[in-house]
């Protein structure tokens, strides 16, 4: 589904991704872990064209993602993204946020879009907040609206960039719960996360990224419980038992 | 005092005619300037160099010329290259052109103040730039820009008095003519100033109202 083939990416002279090879299969949950600055966000952003890359290729179901192509918008619509800081549209209600994409990008029928958006908000547990503006919602609620907004596009895959890192601890659970449910429905997801426990539960594949390279990969069992690589071991120790 | 009032009464119809023209010139110029200014701002914030660079030059160029000179230029020079505009048209055009450039900077600042996360969110649901501008960026920029925009309207209204020098019979021009025929400078120009204030003060209050009601919500 999402295939990385020797992806290289630099900002100016700084090489951030140094040859990434990976594949996320349809219905699979991939968790991307790694220290700060290792290039996780950059890799994710290359997938839906928010960043361009210089060498190699990323393809989605066979379509090569090229941030400079005129067609990049249709790729974005197929693979949506959930951000660390939610990025809801503050001037629109929760419901309008969810409807925005299907209504104006996919140009679907307003009534159907509205019904579906209400269903989605219900699914993330926010049916009663549909007319609230983002400013009046808690971080956890905003992130759940953002997930509903991403789902409303009926994407082939969803990218999550540290979806719980900006949340107060007591709100992390409600967001992970929604994501867990999506994993259960075999939504294809690529998740950057520091929630190791959560990754253990849902990941079909864990990729450990360090210094722009995938240092270790495998099942959650292999990478998270029984890492081979010294750097993975160190990283896990640090995130599991912060000093 | 009663003398002032009785004289005022006889001057007022004449001045009100001018006032009406001032309002008309201001509204037309504002309408044009807003649209053109928005266009400049969209050009300037686009990623197309072919739009960015010429727009930047043009805006800086116009901003660097005194409005009065611009008006003279349009009114007196345009006919020499075969473009015949009435004084009224020249006045509206000059005001609109100058203020489109002032406004474009205001609009640009508003557009650039929008959080980058908003743009990324819009892109990640597949929005192209025009749609993103219309649905995400401009509605939010509008709130930011409203106070300086209001200020600009008042400046434009006051600048409109300059069209009197190219013989548009606006409030200022009517005042000047009245004063030179009656020699009653005191009454006439007091009235003229008062009539301008009748426009600018309510405008100011209205803008402040809008600011507070728009500032919150959402
Ligand atoms: N727009 C940019 N311009 C220049 N350098 C950038 C840019 N974005 C990221 N970088 C650099 O690229 C490297 C990787 O950044 P990235 O955000 O992908 O890391 P990350 O793994 O997501 O880190 P974090 O866990 O802190 O989010 C960092 O060194 C960062 O400074
Ligand atoms: Mg990151």
Give a brief description.
The complex is a heterodimer of chains A (about 240) and B (about 220). Chain A is of the alpha/beta class.
Summarize the structure in words.
The complex is a heterodimer of chains A (243) and B (218). Chain A has 243 residues and is of the alpha/beta class. Chain A has 9 helices and 10 strands. In chain A, the strands form 2 sheets. Chain A has a 6-stranded mixed β-sheet, sandwiched between helices. In chain A, strands 2-1-4-5 form a 4-stranded antiparallel β-sheet, covered by helices on one side. The termini of chain A are far apart. The model of chain A has no long low-confidence stretch (mean pLDDT 93). Chain B has 218 residues and is an all-alpha fold. Chain B has a single domain, classed as MetI-like (MetI-like fold), CATH 1.10.3720.10. Helices cover 82% and strands 0% of the residues of chain B. Chain B contains 8 helices and no strands. The longest helix of chain B has 43 residues, at 2-44. The termini of chain B are far apart. The model of chain B has no long low-confidence stretch (mean pLDDT 92). The structure holds adenosine-5'-triphosphate and magnesium ion (MG). Adenosine-5'-triphosphate binds at residues 11, 16, 34, 36-42 of chain A.
Note the topology.
The complex is a heterodimer of chains A (243) and B (218).
Chain A: E1 2-11, E2 14-24, E3 29-33, H1 40-47, E4 55-60, E5 63-64, H2 72-78, E6 79-82, H3 94-105, H4 110-123, H5 139-152, E7 157-161, H6 169-184, E8 188-192, H7 196-202, E9 205-210, E10 213-218, H8 220-225, H9 230-240
Parallel strand pairs in A: 3-8, 3-9, 6-7, 7-8
Antiparallel strand pairs in A: 1-2, 1-4, 4-5, 9-10
Helix pairs in contact in A: 3-4, 3-5, 4-5, 5-6
Chain B: H1 2-44, H2 49-63, H3 67-77, H4 87-112, H5 116-124, H6 129-159, H7 171-182, H8 185-215
The structure holds adenosine-5'-triphosphate (ATP) and magnesium ion (MG).
């Amino acid at each position: 589904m999402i295939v990385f083939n020797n992806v290289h990416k630099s900002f100016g002279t700084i090489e951030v991704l140094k040859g990434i090879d990976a594949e996320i299969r349809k219905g699979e949950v991939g968790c991307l872990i790694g220290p700060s600055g290792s290039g996780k966000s950059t890799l994710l952003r290359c997938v839906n064209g928010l960043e361009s890359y210089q060498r190699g290729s990323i393809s989605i179901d066979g379509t090569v993602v090229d941030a400079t192509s005129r067609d990049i918008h249709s790729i974005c619509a197929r693979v949506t993204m959930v951000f660390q800081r939610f990025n809801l549209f503050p001037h629109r209600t929760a419901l309008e946020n969810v409807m925005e994409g299907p209504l104006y990008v996919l140009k679907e029928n307003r009534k159907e879009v509205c019904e579906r958006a209400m269903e989605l908000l219900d699914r993330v547990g926010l049916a009663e907040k549909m007319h609230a503006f983002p400013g009046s919602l808690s971080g956890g609620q905003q992130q759940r609206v953002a997930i509903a907004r991403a789902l409303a596009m009926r994407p082939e895959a969803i990218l999550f960039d540290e979806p719980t890192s900006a949340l107060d601890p007591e709100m992390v659970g409600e967001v992970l719960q929604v994501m867990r449910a999506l994993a259960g429905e075999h939504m294809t997801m690529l998740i950057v996360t520091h929630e190791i426990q959560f990754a253990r539960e849902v990941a079909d594949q864990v990729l450990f990224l360090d210094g722009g390279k995938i240092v270790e990969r495998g099942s959650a069992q292999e990478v998270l419980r029984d890492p081979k690589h010294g750097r993975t071991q160190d990283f896990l120790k640090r995130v599991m038992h912060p000093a | 005092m009663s003398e002032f009032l009785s004289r005022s009464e006889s001057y007022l119809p004449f001045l009100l005619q001018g006032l009406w023209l001032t309002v008309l010139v201001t509204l037309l110029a504002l309408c044009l300037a807003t649209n053109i200014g928005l266009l400049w701002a969209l050009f300037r914030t686009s990623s197309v160099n072919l739009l960015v660079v010429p727009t930047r030059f043009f805006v800086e160029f116009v901003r660097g010329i005194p409005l009065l000179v611009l008006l003279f230029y349009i009114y007196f020079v345009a006919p020499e290259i075969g473009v015949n505009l009435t004084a009224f048209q020249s006045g509206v055009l000059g005001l609109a052109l100058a203020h489109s450039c002032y406004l474009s900077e205001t609009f640009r600042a508003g557009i650039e103040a929008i959080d980058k996360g908003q743009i990324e969110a819009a892109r990640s649901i597949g929005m192209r730039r025009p749609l993103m501008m219309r649905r995400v960026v401009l509605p939010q920029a509008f709130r930011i820009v409203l106070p300086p925009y209001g200020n600009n309207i008042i400046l434009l209204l006051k600048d409109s008095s300059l069209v009197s020098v190219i013989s548009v019979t606006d409030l200022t021009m009517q005042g000047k003519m009245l004063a030179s025929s009656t020699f009653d400078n005191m009454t006439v120009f007091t009235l003229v100033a008062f009539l301008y204030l009748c426009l600018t003060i309510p405008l100011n209050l209205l803008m402040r109202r809008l600011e507070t009601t728009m500032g919150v919500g959402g």
